Amino acid sequence: xxxxxxxxxxxIKFKDKITRQQKTAALPQAEITEGKCWGRLGFYGxxxxxxxxxxxxxxxxxxxEGSQTAFTITDRAGWNGEAYIxxxxxxxx
Length: 93
Fold this sequence. Notes:
The chain has helices spanning 35-43, 52-64; strands at residues 2-3, 9-15, 22-28, 72-73, 78-80, 83-85, 91-92. The chain is an alpha+beta fold. A hairpin with a 5-residue loop joins strand 6 (83-85) and strand 7.
């Protein structure tokens, strides 16, 4: 995804380890190779090992793999029930 200022994001889906519900988050692509990324993933409850080789592999995966669907990231978007409402009014389930 990309925001109105031109910054890029990777949209990640993960299962909350306590509630077991699927969650979606926008991860700033500029942070993926930095400590901020690992802290943000930890905030989401995802365990990230400290070994540099594994972190590099995860960073490569987060930057290159997955769907190439383009999303617009805005402050106006947000969750509505089980759907994420995009700025244009589209719902992502």
